Amino acid sequence: MSNPVSSDSTVLNNPKSLSKFAFFAMTASLFVTVYEYPTFAQSGKGLIFFLVACGLFWFLPVALCSAELATIKENQSGGIFSWVGNPLGTKMGFAALFFQWFQVTVGFVTMLYFVIGTLATILDIPSFNDNPWVKFSLVVGMFWVITLAQFKGTGYTATVSKYAFSIGIILPVLVMLVLAIVYFGKGNPISDDFTSKPFFPKLENFSALTAFILAYMGVEASAPNATSLVNFKRNYPLIMIALVIVGIALSTIGGSVVSMVLQGSISSNEGLMDAVKILVGAQDHSWAVVLLGCLICFGIIGQVSSWIVSPTAGLQYVAQKGLLPKRFNWQNKNGVPIYILFIQGIIVTIWAGVLTFGSGGEANISFETAISLTVLIYLSAYVLFFISYFVVLFKYQDLPRDYEVPGGKYAKIAIASIGLLMSLLAIGFAFVIPSSMTPEQGKTYVILLVICFILTLVAPFVVFKLYNRKYK
To answer: Around Cβ 33, how many Cβ atoms within 10 Å?
Structure first.
C-alpha cells in the first residue's frame, strides 16, 4: 500500500478525463512499495511463486469486482461502506469501512519501523532499532510530525507523495537492479538461501502468504474513478493485467536482489540496507549507502503522508450519515479533517506501544506482527467485500452498472470465489509461526496477534451499537 492521493485532483474532478497512463500511475502508486522486500526475500526463489499467485488469484479478483460494485448507481458514494452496506446492511458496511481505515493505523507503525531500521543501519546507531523506548519515541515522534504537516492540505500531500513515489520507490528499485547486475557480473555467488529454497514452497512456509497479499492491498481504492477512464470498459481490465505484471516485476526484482545477496537470517526492517551495502561494496557507511537509504526513507515517509489523510473520507461520509459524531467531519481552512487525524494519531501511538513493548522489544517480532495484523484487519474488510459481491450477483443482478466483470455469471462466480478463498487462506496462514522465529518468539508472536485481532474484530460492532443506542 502506498500512495492514494498521488493523482492530480483536477484530473479526478473532470469526468472521462483520465488517460490510460494517468489511471495506471494512480493505481500503481496505491500498492507499489519497498518495505516488504526483506520479508519477501526470506522465501528465496519461492517469492516468485507467491507474487504470481497473489497477483493472479487475489489482486485481479479484487480489482475487477470492486470496479463492478463501484459503478452501480447506488454505490457511487461512500466507497466500501456503500459496496458492503447496501447489500449486507449498515452495520456490516460500517464494519468494512472501519477495518479498511483501522488497518492503516497498524500499517503506519509497520512503515515507520522500516524507516527506523534503515536509519539505524545507514547512521550506524543500533539503539534506534534495539532499544524499545528509543524505537517507540521515534515512531510516535515521526508520525505526529508527519500528521501535523498534513494540515496544509491534500495539495501539499499529493506533491510530496508524487516525488516520494518517483525518487523514493521506483528509483531505488532500478538502482538496485543495476547494482545487482554489476555485482553478479563480477563473479560474486548467488546466496544459497535463494537457490536452496524451492519455487513451490512447503506447507509450513505458507505463512508467508500473508505478507505477499499485503503487496497488492489498496488497489480497490481506485475503482470509484474507473468510469473517468477513457473507454473504461475495454481499458480497465487491460490496465489491471498490466498492473499485475508491473507489480510482480518490481516486487520480484527487489525481493530477489535482497535474497540473492544476503546469506543467513534476513532482518525484516534492516535487510534491504544490508543488501545495498554489499551491492555498493561498502561495509562502512559510504555516501552511496547513506544517499540510497535516505531516498528509501523519503519514499516510505511519502507513503505515510498520503495514507494519513486519504482513508478519512469514508469516516467523514458516515459522519454525514449520522453514524458517527458530527465532529468527525470537522475540517480546517484547508479541508483537512483535523478531529479524525487527532483520533488516528492517538490510536497509532497506542499501537506503537503495544507492538513495540508487547513483542519484548525484539525488532523482528514487532515488525512481523505489525505486518500480519495489518493484513488480517484489511482482509476482514475484503471478506465482507466478496460476500457483498455474491449477494449483489445473486439478489440484485438487475441493478444497472457501468462495468461488469467479463465472462458472464459463471466467470463472475469463479473470480469472486477465488478471491474470497485466497483471503480466507491468508487469514488462516497469518497465525502460522514464521520459520525465521524461534519457538519462544513464535509464542509471543501468536499471542500478541490473536489478542490484537480479536479486539479489532469486536471494535466496530461495539462502537456501532453504543453510538446508535445513544444517538438513535
So the answer is: 25
Cell of 205: 512456509
Are 46 and 201 in contact by the 8 Å Cβ rule? The answer is yes
Whole-angstrom Cα distance, residue 374 to residue 357? 18
Distance, CA of 430 to CA of 446 (rounded, Å):
9
3-state secondary structure of 18: strand
**Digit-coded pLDDT (tens) for 168-185:** 888 888 999 999 999 999
- Write out the H or E segment, with its range, that includes residue 299: helix 287-309
CB-based contact 210:42 (threshold 8 Å): no
Amino acid at 267: S
Q: Does residue 221 have a pLDDT over 80?
A: no
- DSSP assignment, residue 433? P
Give CA angle at 291 (287, 296), nearest 5°: 150
Phi/psi of residue 5, each to 5°?
-110, 20
Crossing angle of helices 287-309 and 132-149, rounded to 10°: 60
User: 368-385 pLDDT, tens per residue?
Assistant: 888 889 899 999 999 999
What's the predicted TM-score (pTM) here?
0.81
CA distance linking residue 313 with residue 239, whole number of Å: 25
